[in-house]
Structures are given as structure tokens and as C-alpha cells.
Amino acid sequence: MKNDHLTLFIIDDDPGVRDSLGLLLAVRGYRTALFACAKDFLSAWRPDWMGAILCDIRMPDIDGLELLGRLQQQGCALPCIMITGHGDVDLARQAFKAKAVDFLEKPLDDAKLIAAIEEAFASVSSLHNSDLQRKQASESLAKLTAREREVLGHVVAGAKNSEIAQQLGISVRTVEVHKSRLMDKLGVDNIADLVRMTL
Q1: Where residue 160 sits, what CATH number does that domain have?
Q2: Which long-range contacts (C-beta less than 8 Å, at least 24 apart) are formed by 178-186?
Q3: Does some domain include residue 138?
Q4: pLDDT tens for each residue of 167-192
Q5: pTM score > 0.70 for this model?
Q6: H runs (alpha helix) in the chain
């Protein structure tokens, strides 16, 4: 997945910070969306949004930590980078405990900010690829016949062809045919990949 499919959602109650971050990151080629407060982001958020959040930790009404907690309760998996003008060890600890990707102090160091964004986007791409692989595996497994699924279950359990044949009351040659067909349907050419698909 390319980064141009990802959006950086910037949430900061300071319009000067929000606008300057939006401009800086847009110039660097990032697609951005700006929000003045956590409440605005929560009401706008959609499950199909892809990208990362760059959020001020101290905001009125709903602060960054509370926002992160609420998003996690709603099943939002967007990684979050916390920023603050008043950083301390306890606040950093709370941010990381809330599963923030990074914790950066204002004024922001451009290199550290870009590195944090790239790390967040990399985790999104990795998660997306894993989800895609799981979906493809599920779709491929659904194409198997009932007998092929039976054979697959025995293969994954580590049974030899002769043992599978005995347990299913079929010939070893028939087991080999089923095994060959199911591996072909699943697009794998070795047992290790076959096992990995069923995990």
C-alpha cells in the first residue's frame, strides 16, 4: 500500500499549530485532514478511514488520552502520535500505555515528526496487508470441497497420506489427488505455507 492512500488526521485546539502542521505536511506530500477538537474527530470518524492520527494530548473537553481510549472502544485501529507543549515523564508513560506510537514535544522537530509518521503509516500498511492476506486465505479455503477440507485438516494435523487414507476409508492415491487439488486451489506449493494459511 502506498502512503498516498493514507491520511494524517491532525487534531489540535490551537489553530496556529494545526494550520502550520497541515501546511508543513502537505508540502511534504502527506494527505491531511484537520480537526479543532477531539469531539469533531469522533463525530466525523468512519471505520474505513486509513492513516494515522497526530493529536495534541492536552485539549479542552476531551483530551488526547481520552480520545485514544474512546477510539479503541469503537474499534478504531488508527495509530496515534501524541504531541504536547508541556511534556513530562508521567504524561509520556500514560501516552505509551494508551498505545500511542510516539510522544513528541512542541516545538516539533521535523525529522522526528516525519519518522514518527512513517512508522505509524508502516504499521497501518502491515496491518492492512495482514487483513488482506487473511481475507484472501478465507476466500480460497471456501473454494475447497468438503472432502478436500477433511484432507486438509488431517494434513495440517501432521498425518501421513497412508494415515489419512485409512482414517477416511479412501486410497492413498485419492488422498494425493485431493491434496494436490487443494494445494492448487490455495495457491501453495509446500506444507509450511498450507499450515500458515489455516492459522
Answers
A1: 1.10.10.10
A2: 178/147, 178/148, 178/151, 179/151, 179/155, 181/148, 182/144, 182/148, 182/149, 182/151, 182/152, 185/140, 185/143, 185/144, 185/148, 186/137, 186/140, 186/141, 186/144
A3: no
A4: 999 999 999 998 898 888 888 877 77
A5: no
A6: 15-27, 38-44, 64-73, 89-97, 110-142, 146-156, 161-168, 172-186, 191-198
